[in-house]
Specification:
Blueprint: E1 2-6, H1 10-21, E2 25-30, H2 33-42, E3 46-49, H3 55-60, E4 68-71, H4 76-89, E5 97-101, E6 123-125, H5 127-140, E7 147-149, E8 155-161, H6 176-179, E9 184-191, E10 194-196, E11 209-215, H7 219-225, E12 235-239, H8 243-253, H9 258-262, E13 273-278, H10 281-290, E14 295-298, E15 317-320, H11 325-337, E16 342-347, H12 350-359, E17 363-366, H13 367-379, E18 384-389, E19 395-401, E20 422-429, E21 432-434, E22 447-453, H14 457-464
Parallel strand pairs: 1-2, 1-4, 2-3, 4-5, 5-6, 12-13, 12-15, 13-14, 15-16, 16-17
Antiparallel strand pairs: 7-8, 8-11, 9-10, 9-11, 18-19, 19-22, 20-21, 20-22
Helix pairs in contact: 1-13, 5-8, 5-13
C-alpha cells in the first residue's frame, strides 16, 4: 500500500516504523523542522518538512496515488481539513482510506461504525475513548491482566501470573487439558521478560505470566487454577479528573455511555463505587456536578500525605490517569505496597508499559500503542478486521476474514503450513466460535484469529486475502 502520514510525533513515527517494516510505501509530512530531521535519519521513507494542510505538499507526498491517508497532527481540525483536501485530490479510480485522530469529545460519536461518516472521513480515532474501553474491559475481568476481546464471539484472551503452589505451578502443558476442562488454549508464556509460543513440553512455573484463550464466562475458573483469589472489583479509585478520568467514570457509572456502546462482549453494568482524587479544586466541583454518585476528593497524588488517606484502604482498584506517566507508574506501584489490591496505570508508549508491568502494575494501558492498533485495524486490507497489540514489540493478534477464492479455502489446518511466526487460535464460523483442531478445514467467510510475529504480517495476510 501507498500510505501518507500527516504528523511525525510519537504515534506517527511508531505507525510509520511498523508500516515500513511491513514493506508498505510510506510518506511522512511534518511541520516541525527538528522532528522532521530526526525522523528522516531514523526511518527509510520520504519525509517532507512542511504543513500537510497544503495541496502542493500533499501532491508531493503522493496523495494522488495513495491508498490511505492517516492524520495524526496535534490538532483535530487540521487533521480533518487535511482529509478534506486529500479527498479532492485522490485518484477517482482508487478508494482512498482517510483516518483522523481527534481529541474533542464531540467527535466520539463518529469513532464507531454506527456513528456514520463525517466530512467524508472514513474513520475517527479518539485516544481517550480507546484507552477507556480497554480499562473498562480490564475491570470487568477483575484487573488480573490485559484482556483482548474479538468480534462477534464470547472468546477472549486474558493474562494472569501463576502463583506459587497453585494448581498450574509445575504443570506441563501436555497435561493441561486434564486440569482445565473448559475449551481453552495457552497461547503465550512470558518468563523473565522473554515471551515464547509454548509447546506440549513447556512446564509452567510460578512467576510465569500466561495468556489464555477461552470463553469469557470460563476465564474466572481458569484464573483460580492459576492462583487468583481476589474478590470482585467494586470500589474503584481514579487518580486524575481530566478527560480520560471522566471517560472512565462514564463507562463505570453510566450504562448508556458512548464507551459502553462500543465495548465488545459487554457484561451487565455493575454497581461500582467510584472515588476521584483530583488536585485542582475547580475540576473537583465539575466532577461533583457531573457524577453525583461518586465521591470527589481534593487530593494531590504526588503529595506524600496522599498514601495515608483512609479512603485508599478499602479500594479494590486504583486507576492512575494523570497526564504524567512517570507519576502514574510510581503511584500505582507504591499504592500496591500500601495494600491497594489492583492497579491500572496509563502510560504513553510501550517502553514505559514494559517497565510498569515488570514493577508489578497489574494492567498497563499504553495510549500510543492503543491508537496505533486501532489505526492498523482500519488500514490492513478489507480482510483484516482488527489488530491487537499484546504489549510486546514483536507479537500481535490479527483478526481476519477468509476472502473469496483465498488460497487456504478447502485446505485442512494440518496440511497447511503457517509461517514460523504465526499460529491459528480461534475460528468464528456463522456465529459459532471454536478453537480449531487438526481436522479443521478453512472455508470462505470464516473469521479467524492469528497470533503473529510482526515480521510475518504480510506473509500471513496473503493466505486469507481474496484472489481476483
Amino acid at each position: 500500500m501507498r500510505i501518507v502520514i500527516a504528523g511525525a510525533g510519537n504515534t506517527g513515527t511508531q505507525l510509520a516504523k511498523f508500516l515500513i517494516q511491513e514493506k508498505h510505501d510510506v510518506s511522512l509530512i511534518e511541520s516541525n523542522e527538528d522532528r522532521a530531521k530526526h525522523v528522516s535519519n531514523r526511518l527509510d521513507c520520504i519525509v517532507i518538512h512542511n504543513k500537510a494542510n497544503n495541496v502542493k505538499v500533499l501532491k508531493e507526498a503522493g496523495i494522488e496515488k495513495a491508498d490511505a491517508l492517516i492524520c495524526v497532527t496535534g490538532y483535530d481540525e487540521v487533521n480533518m481539513i487535511i482529509c478534506g483536501l486529500a479527498a479532492s485530490l485522490a485518484n477517482e479510480d482508487k478508494k482512498l482510506i482517510k483516518i483522523a485522530r481527534v481529541y474533542n469529545d464531540d467527535y466520539m460519536q463518529f469513532t464507531h461504525p454506527e456513528g456514520g461518516r463525517f466530512l467524508n472521513i472514513d474513520h475517527f480515532i479518539h485516544p481517550g475513548m480507546e484507552a477507556a474501553c480497554s480499562i473498562i474491559k480490564a475491570i470487568e475481568h477483575g484487573v488480573i491482566g490485559d484482556i483482548v476481546s474479538f468480534s462477534n464471539t464470547p472468546y477472549e484472551l486474558g493474562s494472569i501470573e501463576i502463583v506459587k503452589d497453585s494448581a498450574m505451578d509445575g504443570l506441563a502443558l501436555v497435561d493441561y487439558r486434564k486440569l482445565v476442562t473448559h475449551e481453552s488454549l495457552v497461547t503465550l508464556v512470558e518468563r523473565n521478560n522473554v515471551v515464547v509460543l509454548p509447546s506440549g513440553s513447556t512446564v509452567l512455573k510460578h512467576g510465569d505470566r500466561i495468556h489464555v484463550l477461552a470463553d469469557n464466562k470460563n476465564l474466572p475458573d481458569i484464573y483460580k487454577l492459576a492462583g487468583d483469589t481476589q474478590k470482585p472489583i467494586r470500589k474503584i479509585g481514579i487518580a486524575g479528573g481530566g478527560k480520560l478520568g471522566v471517560l472512565i467514570a462514564e463507562g463505570l457509572l453510566e450504562k448508556d455511555s458512548a464507551i459502553n456502546q462500543v465495548i465488545k462482549n459487554k457484561k451487565q453494568t455493575k454497581n461500582y463505587r467510584v472515588i476521584f482524587f483530583e488536585k485542582d479544586s475547580k475540576a473537583c466541583y465539575k466532577l461533583a456536578a457531573r457524577f453525583p454518585s461518586a465521591l470527589i476528593l481534593h487530593e494531590d497524588i504526588s503529595d506524600e500525605s496522599f498514601a495515608s488517606d483512609e479512603e485508599l484502604s478499602g479500594l479494590d482498584c486504583l486507576i492512575t490517569a494523570t497526564t504524567n506517566e512517570e507519576l502514574n507508574i510510581i503511584t500505582a506501584v507504591y499504592m500496591k505496597s500500601k495494600g491497594v489490591t489492583r492497579t491500572i496505570a496509563i502510560v504513553n508508549g510501550s517502553g514505559h508499559a514494559a517497565m510498569a508491568r515488570h514493577l508489578g502494575v497489574d494492567v498497563v494501558i499504553p495510549m500510543m500503542s492503543v491508537v496505533v492498533d486501532s489505526i492498523l485495524s482500519h488500514l490492513m486490507g478489507s480482510n483484516v478486521k482488527e489488530v491487537h497489540s499484546l504489549g510486546y514489540e514483536n507479537i500481535d493478534l490479527i483478526e481476519v476474514e477468509i476472502g473469496k477464492n483465498a488460497p487456504v479455502i478447502d485446505k485442512p489446518i494440518s496440511a497447511f503450513k503457517l509461517s514460523e511466526g504465526g499460529l491459528l487460535l480461534l475460528v468464528n464460523r456463522k456465529g459459532v466460535s471454536f478453537i480449531p483442531k487438526g481436522d479443521y478445514i478453512f472455508q470462505e467467510g470464516d473469521h479467524i484469529v492469528v497470533i503473529a510475529n510482526v515480521d510475518s504480517h504480510s506473509e500471513i495476510e496473503k493466505y486469507w486475502r481474496s484472489s481476483k
